[in-house]
């Protein structure tokens, strides 16, 4: 079955461009469009998309609040949110990730990256590009814990290896890269990641990365 995508952006020209790119793919179907967050909520309820391609700054309701309502408790469907951003609006991306977005993508990303990001998010994974993640978190280092704060009690539920994996996830490494770093198999890494998400009550790798930084386990700029 095709991945059902809802396009949310207040610029019709951008929506048209995204639609042309996505409709060229056999496994993706654009089921609707919205020009602001309120329209997006109505369209999500009516169309039940798999992925919402969400702009951040829009009239009436911005993408952060719309994301929160789409992915929060009592949501009407299984829609995942992929946020569109420019580096000028980085602070809003951080808020969108906290609100429940499954990842983010630059508006000027190549067409193949847009298509791949939608497939990744639709499959239940997180679109967490290491270079963008590092830049975001480094830029907002002053607003995140310094690493000197007490470690949250929930972290004590993790094994030593699970803490290692969480740190590497927070730095944007893929399962293959983590496996190479720790000299284990990718299957083992997937198991550890699953345990981390379950123990900490997190939805995906994006939330795990945000948690690691906000808890002070990982400090922006640290290697």
From TrEMBL:
GO terms for biological process: phosphorelay signal transduction system; regulation of DNA-templated transcription. PROSITE patterns: HTH_LUXR_1, HTH_LUXR_2, RESPONSE_REGULATORY. SMART domains: HTH_LUXR, REC. Residues 4-122 form the Response regulatory domain. InterPro entries: CheY-like_superfamily, NreC/VraR/RcsB-like_REC, Sig_transdc_resp-reg_C-effctor, Sig_transdc_resp-reg_receiver, Tscrpt_reg_LuxR_C, WalR-like. One of its GO terms (molecular function) is DNA binding. Residues 151-216 form the HTH luxR-type domain. Keywords: DNA-binding, Phosphoprotein, Transcription, Transcription regulation. It comes from the Bacteria. It holds the Pfam family Response_reg. The modification 4-aspartylphosphate is found at residue 55. PANTHER family: TRANSCRIPTIONAL REGULATORY PROTEIN NARL-RELATED, TWO-COMPONENT RESPONSE REGULATOR. This is Response regulator transcription factor.
